[in-house]
Amino acid sequence: MLKIKTTLLAMSIMTVLGCSDSTVTTQQSTTAPEAAATQAVDNESASLSVDYESYELDNGLTVVLHVDKSDPIVAMATVVHVGSNREKPGRTGFAHFFEHMSFNDSENVPKGANRKMIPELGGTRNGGTWSDGTIYYEVVPKDAFDKLLWIDSDRLGYMINTVDQGTLEREKQVVKNEKRQRVDNRPYGHMGHVVRKALYPTGHPYNWTVIGDLEDLQAATLDDVREFYNQFYMPANATLVIAGDIDIAQTKEKVAKWFGEIKSGEPSPALEPQPVSLEADKKLYHLDNFAKLPLLRLTYPTIEQYTDDAYALDALGRLLSDGKNAVLYKTLVEELKLAPRPSAWSDTNEIAGSFAINVQANADVPLDKVYAGIQQALDDFAENGFTDAQLQRIKAEQETAFYYNIESILDKALQLGIYNEYAGSPGFIEQDIANIQAVTREDIMRVFTQYVYNQPAIVASFVPKEQPDLVLTGSNKAPVEEEEIVAGSEPEFEEKPVEYTKTPTEHDRSEPALTELPTLTTPDIWHQSMDNGVKVIGITSNELPVVNFSLTIDGGQWLDPKGKAGTASLMAQLLNEGTANKTPQELEQAIGQLGAQLSISADRESIELSGRVLAKHYPALMDLAAEMLLSPRWDENEFERLKSASLTRIKRDEGNAARIASNVFAHLLYGDNHVAGQPMGGTQASVESITLADVKAYYEKVMSPMQATLHVVGALSPEEAVTAAAPVKQWQGEAVSLPAQPEVSTVDKPVVYFVDVPDAKQSVIYVGKPVLPASDRDFFAIDFANERLGGGMSARLGQTLRIQKGYTYGAYSYLPAAQYQVPFIAASQVRTNVTLESLQIFKSLIGQYQPTYLEEDLATAKNMVIKANSRRFETLDSQLNMLEEISRLGLEDNYIATQQEFVQNASLKDIHHVIKQHLNEQQMIYLVVGDAETQLERIKELGYGVPVELDIHGEPVNPI
């Protein structure tokens, strides 16, 4: 993973993210270390803490321990205080590049163990880099805790001797693929580079992006890697957090054994704040190869994190853009009708900060108009400010967010580690919420005037390359260098065993054994029903005083009128825009005052009303939910605005290669007459044809309690959950049947399709076929059989295309669950000049999957699936998803236990039969979305004939 953002907890709703015996001294400990989280909430403010014990090893490593025995799992997070701000000009992107290098072998852990072993133990793992730091994190069933200690300690203390030139070259290619996927091959991908280069002077630690410049990545040497490790990767520069089902005394002994012998080194000196200023606006533009809509971003220099001004700037960003009462929304969306959804945010970091206003405009809108609109909105804010109710809403939402930010064990581990490294104490969570609550009206208006209003900014215009006339007047060309992808230009690499002298240690550092496997326990599920036909299914969980719920109504896009795909989506959006008794602004304020989230959405199979809230506010939120559901406002102006926004989204997606591939592949598999064959939300033609009368007719026909199920998870008994939902009992209606979807068949032989995206830096590849509905009793067997093909980075697609070849950032195969025939999909985004080679790998791995699937594959898959279930019910969202699967697919309450029984009893013969019957490569189609000029002709060599050329909507380019 590239980017993790450390910031105010509630500001990002904890975005942490597009891992010899020592004398120890306890730095801080709460009185009840065996508890999970303690909290006390009143009506005015939140007080929240996470119990932990913190101490320091002799070598300088800070260790934070937190006990939570609610699930039989353990999370570990290692925060290393080195980000891109520690890099040198000419070696940018190195902190992130080193994160990639750190997931390879170390002196006592074999190559591939980081990426393969943890998933195969039933865990998850990843890492992240941001401007100020790097983090490595894992979650495993507790029987694998010792193995985590072994892997993580060896990475921190014993990895540098194993680095070789082949691994270096492979990771260079992987990181460059990540850069292409995240930056070069997507709309507005170069925005971060343009803004940073303009905002921060040459030599400033934030002058470059986290992923760095391509030429710097290519120039990295083994000596650079060793220098970086020796300078920054030492215990005194890191915090280790262990959270979960642990024993404090035993864990201290284990930490001392595994981490205590690592040499200490010298901690990196603290960086002093380096805020910047601008004398005047800098206006820059870029003609974007992938953008279909113009975008304007204003970026102002501000101040570093955890300062008083940082908290006020965060509140300012929310007040300017969050919600229908926000001045940017009212001005740019409602009054001037220039854009669908402007945004503003504060981005404060360790040594400096910035504040951004971002507006993706409607098609063909000149950015001069957008710029003038922003200035008009800021003038309005300067004159009229905001209401007390708006500020109260923000603080209520932050109160609720704090609970969800520590919901999972990993969330708590990440939070404790980041607070320790960047705020000075793991317990800063209490001060953080106090600082947020202390922000006043005067603070917000002061920072607005000091940093934003009439202040100079970086003003960046990104427009479709064929529409330079939309660029903001007075702008200069931005310094963007587009990579040229040339066949054969990437060096070949070979990873060979490295000869080195192993570092002597007192303790044995060989691989530890697993301890006792935790027993799978599933939550108790309860069922209720209402007199009007609404079914209620729930789980009572009292770990946190919150409730998550969803009310799903069968139908969705499945019941859209013919030729009007997108009707359900527009109806769902319109139900969010006020009620018969409340304007959109009043409804939003009412929800916000509860600190809640509540919204209605549509997918292909259902309409869903979903929400989350403190348990004490659940009855009040259900009153609002019933009002939204039963008393639509049907405002013509809101309908036209939403319709325009949908058309804008469709236009935007025309520049996104991954979205094009997804839509076209579905169209190829399902055709025009199947619900899955149409893009979710409709096409330009279908949406343009929808009227408000169509939306009302859909509502009257489809929205029935006989189609509905309420799912509730959280701190409520069944009686409390149903009683509080009493307003929903007023709802009346008749049952509606879902028409059968046409059966789709496989092809007789493979066919290759190609969609041209000129100058694409990567090719998006999809391979697949239709299989069974997810409700079919044999569906899980297919899903399980796929595990070793593409179920994760430890599977064959990822190991071959990324780890062995360096062609991609990731490659997977999966089966998205649905009531209709779901597709088997294998997909990746690969470097353009290895498109054919990647297709050949897909062909070989899928085609030869059955004969090469061995007993060891089955054993590994069994272990992964069975042990992963120990983490399956940790969060309220995971429990809610389980309930939704039960009701949507007609599964039994104990379906997970049934699946586990299948896994335990499956034989090699069984899996071979499933692969042969359902994953036959000769029944699959291939789709490539990429640069036709350089790749189309080569693909003939795949052996499946001349590729069929399609446009971005899936229609033949040269129809017969």
Automatic annotation (TrEMBL):
Residues 484-511 are annotated as: Disordered. Residues 1-21 form the signal peptide. Keywords: Signal. SUPFAM superfamilies: LuxS/MPP-like metallohydrolase. Residues 63-187, 543-653 form the Peptidase M16 N-terminal domain. GO terms for molecular function: metal ion binding. It holds the Pfam family Peptidase_M16. Belongs to the peptidase M16 family. It comes from Alteromonas alba. Residues 494-511 have a biased composition (Basic and acidic residues). Residues 220-396, 689-863 form the Peptidase M16 C-terminal domain. InterPro entries: Metalloenz_LuxS/M16, MPP/UQCRC_Complex, Pept_M16_N, Peptidase_M16_C. The keyword Signal applies. This is Peptidase M16.
